[in-house]
């Protein structure tokens, strides 16, 4: 058992009662607590369900359709063109595939960026994942009034049926929104107690646009949006100036820092989301992990989307946090597996307001966990997860097996819900 917030437990057990964990510890101790039937999983490791701090399910089926660009704006133009050619049915299939791939790779909670407001209720109802739906807002190309954009967002989010997850707001990025929209989102988030996520300081062209009024992004957008917010400081300073740091912010990417940006994020309680495969795809500036960590900024990992992920050579490219861990390990081999594990469990759980609820195995937490084969010692168990390939053996959400890999149903024969759709 790998609780994450406590030492790993050899020959461990977890007692699940309803949708919660009642106890975690050595098997000999847990067995004495309950007369309930026991399911012996054999030589495996049990981890908390992973928490994905940033995903775009909509774009899962875009894997391999956009080549890595020379300039960041070229990719934006490419995905806008591609999106304009897709039907509702294609977006729906892509969203559901992304959700399924998350489930099969051990993720149980996801902060997902939603662009299909009219399909959202139906999509959320079709996955057992804890989906935190952050409704994306832009407004630059449409020229729509920020007040109307925000009012429509409120109507959509408040009309959604109850769900395992939650809702939030996602002004896409400083360059694709207006200062008025950012301020309106900040005010609404404070009023409703909603979290906010935003792509911030992702690329050098974005940094150059707001710091120096120059670069490829500035040139492309200068006739599409007002530019009086450019030349006034870094993107992090901009989102702070317009109030986005007043609510718990998941700042996505943050590859370009300047001055006291890291201390500013830390002081306001923001979390930064790093997406290793997307970072490699674009060739962004080196992620400044040390600077952020020294300032006290929690770092989380996200998958981003398969539209910005290189096609894998060794097999199908999937939306998997474990694949992100492996990419991170290959690019930063000195990073300890235990630290990486925190970035897909406890750190994003806290960023979503779910501290002690998900992302760890402990009494009172939700019974969300994943199972992978492991016959080694507890000393190597975190590394086993980092280098795992393919689907996990099983994924439980809220005390119910929601994914069982082919060949594992017999192992789980003592469980109570083998009628689950194992989605092979």
Average pLDDT for all residues: 94
Using DSSP, what is the number of strands? 14
What percentage of amino acids are in beta strands?
A: 15-25%
Question: With helices defined by DSSP (H or I, 4 residues minimum), what is the helix count?
Answer: 16
- What's the name of the CATH homologous superfamily of the largest domain? Metal-dependent hydrolases
Main sheet: strands, sense, barrel = 8 strands, parallel
Would you list the SSEs in sequence order as H and E?
EEHEEHHEHEHEHEHHHEHEHHEHHHEHEE
The secondary structure category is alpha/beta
Strand order of the largest sheet: 4-5-6-7-8-9-10-11
Radius of gyration: 21 Å
CATH architecture of the largest domain: Alpha-Beta Barrel
Give an overview of the whole structure.
The chain is of the alpha/beta class and 424 residues long. Helices cover 34% and strands 18% of the residues. The protein has 16 helices and 14 strands. Mean pLDDT is 94; it is low at 416-424.
């Amino acid at each position: 058992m790998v609780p994450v917030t406590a030492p790993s437990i050899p020959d461990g057990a977890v007692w699940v009662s309803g949708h919660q964990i009642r106890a975690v510890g050595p098997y000999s101790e847990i067995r004495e607590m309950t007369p309930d039937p026991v399911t012996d999983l054999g030589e495996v490791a049990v981890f908390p369900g992973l928490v994905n701090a940033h995903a775009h399910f909509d774009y899962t089926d875009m894997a391999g359709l956009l080549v890595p660009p020379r300039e960041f704006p070229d990719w934006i133009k490419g995905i806008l063109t591609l999106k304009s050619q897709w039907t509702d049915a294609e977006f729906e299939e892509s969203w559901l595939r992304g959700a399924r791939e998350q489930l099969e790779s051990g993720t149980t909670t996801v902060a997902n960026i939603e662009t299909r407001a009219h399909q959202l209720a139906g999509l959320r109802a079709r996955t057992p994942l804890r989906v935190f739906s952050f409704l994306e807002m832009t407004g630059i190309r449409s020229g729509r009034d920020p007040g109307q954009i925000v009012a429509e967002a409120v109507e959509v989010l408040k009309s959604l049926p109850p769900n395992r997850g939650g809702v939030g707001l996602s002004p896409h990025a400083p360059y694709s929104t207006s200062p008025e929209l950012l301020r309106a989102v900040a005010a609404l988030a404070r009023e409703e107690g909603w979290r906010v996520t935003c792509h911030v300081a992702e690329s050098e062209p974005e940094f150059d646009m707001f710091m120096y009024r120059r670069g490829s992004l500035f040139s492309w957008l200068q006739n599409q949006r007002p530019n009086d917010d450019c030349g006034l400081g870094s993107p992090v300073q901009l989102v702070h100036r317009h109030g986005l740091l007043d609510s718990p912010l998941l700042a996505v990417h943050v590859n370009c820092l300047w001055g006291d940006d890291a201390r500013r994020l830390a002081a306001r309680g923001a979390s930064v989301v790093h997406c290793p495969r997307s970072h490699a795809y674009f060739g962004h500036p080196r992620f400044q992990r040390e600077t952020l960590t020294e300032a006290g900024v929690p770092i989380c990992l996200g998958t981003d989307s398969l539209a910005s992920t290189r096609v894998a050579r060794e097999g199908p490219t999937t939306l998997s946090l474990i694949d992100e861990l492996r990419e991170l390990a290959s690019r930063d081999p000195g990073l300890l597996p235990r630290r990486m594990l925190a970035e897909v469990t406890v750190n994003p759980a806290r960023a979503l307001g779910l501290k002690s609820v998900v992302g760890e195995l402990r009494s009172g937490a939700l019974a969300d966990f994943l199972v992978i084969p492991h016959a080694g010692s507890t000393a190597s168990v975190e590394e086993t997860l980092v280098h795992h390939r393919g689907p996990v053996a099983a994924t439980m959400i809220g005390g119910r097996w929601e994914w069982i890999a082919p060949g594992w149903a017999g192992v789980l024969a003592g469980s109570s819900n083998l009628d689950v759709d194992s989605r092979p």
